[in-house]
Amino acid sequence: MSDDLFAELGIPKSDYRVHVCLGPNCSLRGSKKLLEHLEEKVWELGLQNKVEVIATSCRDRCDYGPSVNVYPGPVLYNHVDEDAIDTIAIAHLLGGTVVDRYLFRGKPRR
User: Fold this and answer.
1) Which residues contact 68 (CB under 8 A, 6 or more apart)?
2) 36-49 b/e with 16+ CB inside 10 Å = b?
3) Which of 44, 87, 91, 110 has the fewest other C-beta atoms within 10 Å?
């Protein structure tokens, strides 16, 4: 959706969109609870008008879950737990700094 369309419809545009994978593998690793934790953290930090939290289907990084993507970017975070959510919320969503520790790097290519 373009910025003009957001304004025309009277919808505030989020600074960030955060996709939390609820695919089968990430869900088995607790992503539903992490989604709730992220939503609570966004409210606690007063970011509810700046951050849109979205539950998504599989992000195709099953071996690295739970998985979280932050847009604009995308910035791909993996092996996320509650501590990671807290750190990402404060550093990235509030402070604008990508959290290197949780970045997805994938398997080394041969």
Assistant:
1) 18, 19, 20, 21, 34, 38, 76, 77, 78, 80, 84, 85, 88
2) ebbbebbeeeebee
3) 110
The kind and range of the H/E element at 17 are strand 16-21
Q: Which two tokens stand for residue 22?
A: 């609820």
Please say if the pLDDT value at position 7 is more than 70: no
Structure tokens of 20? 């939390």
Q: Which domains does the chain have, with CATH numbers?
A: 16-102 (3.40.30.10)
Q: Which of 77, 79, 108 is nearest to 93 (CA)?
A: 77
Q: What would the two tokens of residue 43 be? A: 């409210």
Look at 108 and 32; give whichever has higher pLDDT.
32
- C-alpha 69/C-alpha 85 separation (Å) is 12
User: Counting Cβ atoms within 10 Å, is residue 97 exposed (0-12), middle (13-18) or buried (19+)?
Assistant: exposed
Half-sphere exposure of 7 (CA within 13 A, CB side): 3
β-pairing, 51-56 with 68-71? Answer: unpaired
